[in-house]
């Protein structure tokens, strides 16, 4: 008898929220009180191995239920399908989800629906990596370059990057990949930390955490700016005194400014030798970023965590609008669209320094940067992955930082799986934490 075909049997979703606003963790000029949250999805199959695919979209509290609903709208594209076929060629699912014309109307390829597609697609890649018994970075790095090219949607990109150019980049990137894999496993990948720099922290906490970051081996920290210039000048002075002259300080305005304001404000902080200014204006404003970049050099311009899709990244690169590309593993349409952005950045010679932090973003994006190093660009020069020291204990395979560097994941998958007890405790509004929270119960009563 032929083996029973493995099918996707369920798509389970969870509205998971963590009360980070109560300690002002994650606070910035645009988002003063975020409750870091995950619209979480689990793909289940009837395989005897019990492997599941885990993925999520990152949000910051209210609205996470909307994101969950968007993921649930995709269930019909998954249940009953062959897991063998989907894992062998994940691009099939990606094309189906992006090509659902009635759901595509809600974007197209941007916003809540596109983030839902990213969560589901990432869950499939998690499942595929587990079934291949490899961490995702290694699955990608060891994949046939032609197969990788087929995973990428080149529609709207070919004026900047063709499939033939992508294939050449990937084939060239495979040269020496074995030696780089060994170095990665031994030495890890460079990181920087935002943990000292949340806008709601007082000066003493900023100085203490900045000094601790240097002692822990980080050679770059990041500060949130943009609410009050006088405060920013003082905080930059505190941070520079704490880390000394040889540690990089990046600044992040979280889209707070108009173009002229971004130029003026960055100029006022230039005395503290900022390495980059991040999200100085609207993430959709390609020409605005280009104007800021011309005006604030040699301070670099970085953006990308809120860039909606590969097309806007293409335009930012074509317009010479940024010095640092910041991919986000859960903002665009998952692994294949991030592959497209990595390939575009490699074509244009711009370093990628991913956005992380949040809920599980560090866990995810490390795989993409490690693939980029091993099998695409072959370098970590001017490349660092953001690190934020919270919420990792809720994951089964959390990131490990040693001497300011990410250690390479060795467990199969995308490092996306949350602990069952965390799901039970922090699922909103009926998980154990939220059920015991008076404010949450009051909101439920008012809604009823």
Description of the molecule:
With 448 residues, the protein is of the alpha/beta class. It has 2 domains: 8-151, Enolase-like, N-terminal domain (Enolase-like, domain 1), CATH 3.30.390.10; 171-420, Enolase-like C-terminal domain (TIM Barrel), CATH 3.20.20.120. It is 43% helix and 13% strand. It has 19 helices and 12 strands. The chain has a 5-stranded parallel β-sheet. Helix 11 links the parallel strand 5 and strand 6 (248-252). The longest helix has 21 residues, at 111-131.
CATH domain class of the largest domain: Alpha Beta
Arithmetic mean of pLDDT: 96
The CATH architecture of the largest domain can be given as Alpha-Beta Barrel
Radius of gyration: 21 Å
Percent helix:
40-55%
**What general outline do the C-alpha atoms trace?**
globular
Q: Count every helix, treating DSSP H or I runs of 4 or more residues as helices.
A: 19
How many independent structural domains?
2
- Fill in the CATH topology of the largest domain: TIM Barrel
Low-confidence stretches: none
CATH superfamily of the largest domain: Enolase-like C-terminal domain
Task: Tell me the span between the first and last alpha carbons.
Answer: 55 Å
Q: Major sheet: order of its strands?
A: 5-6-7-8-9
- How many E strands? 12
Biggest pleated sheet: 5 strands, parallel
């Amino acid at each position: 008898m032929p083996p029973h075909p493995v099918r996707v049997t369920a798509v389970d979703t969870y509205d998971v929220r963590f009360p980070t606003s109560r300690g002002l963790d994650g606070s910035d000029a645009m988002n003063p009180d975020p409750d870091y949250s995950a619209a979480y999805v689990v793909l289940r199959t009837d395989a005897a191995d019990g492997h599941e695919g885990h993925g999520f979209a990152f949000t910051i509290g209210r609205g996470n239920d909307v994101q969950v609903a968007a993921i649930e709208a995709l269930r019909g594209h998954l249940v009953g399908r062959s897991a063998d076929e989907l894992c062998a060629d994940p691009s099939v699912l990606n094309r189906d989800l992006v090509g659902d014309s009635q759901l595509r109307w809600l974007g197209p390829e941007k916003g809540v629906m596109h983030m839902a597609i990213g969560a589901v697609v990432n869950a499939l890649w998690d499942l595929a990596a587990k079934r291949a018994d490899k961490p995702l970075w290694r699955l990608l790095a060891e994949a046939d370059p032609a197969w990788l090219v087929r995973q990428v949607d080149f529609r709207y990109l070919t004026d900047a990057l063709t499939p033939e150019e992508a294939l050449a980049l990937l084939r060239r990137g495979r040269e020496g990949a074995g030696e780089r894999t060994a170095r990665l496993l031994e030495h890890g990948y460079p990181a920087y930390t935002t943990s000292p720099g949340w806008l709601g922290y007082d000066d003493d906490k900023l100085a203490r955490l900045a000094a601790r970051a240097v002692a822990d081996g980080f050679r770059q920290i990041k500060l949130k700016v943009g609410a009050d210039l006088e405060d920013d000048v003082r905080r930059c002075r505190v941070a520079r005194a704490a880390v000394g002259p040889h540690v990089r300080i990046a600044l992040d305005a979280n889209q707070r400014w108009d173009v002229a304001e971004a130029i003026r404000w960055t100029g006022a902080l230039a005395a503290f030798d900022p390495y980059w200014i991040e999200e100085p204006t609207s993430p959709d404003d390609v020409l605005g970023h280009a104007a800021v970049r011309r005006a604030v050099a040699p301070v670099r311009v970085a953006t990308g965590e809120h860039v909606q899709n590969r097309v806007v990244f293409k335009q930012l690169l074509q317009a010479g609008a940024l010095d640092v590309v910041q991919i986000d593993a859960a903002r665009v349409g998952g692994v294949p669209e991030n592959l497209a952005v990595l390939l575009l950045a490699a074509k244009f010679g711009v370093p990628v320094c991913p956005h992380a932090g949040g809920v599980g973003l560090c866990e995810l994006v490390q795989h993409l940067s490690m693939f980029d190093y091993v099998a695409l660009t072959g370098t970590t020069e001017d490349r660092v992955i953001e690190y934020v020291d919270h919420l990792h204990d809720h994951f089964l395979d959390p990131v490990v930082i040693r001497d300011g560097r990410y250690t390479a994941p060795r467990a199969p998958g995308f490092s996306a799986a949350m602990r069952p007890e965390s799901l039970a405790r922090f699922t909103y509004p009926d998980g154990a934490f939220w059920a015991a929270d008076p404010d949450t119960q009051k909101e439920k009563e008012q809604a009823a």
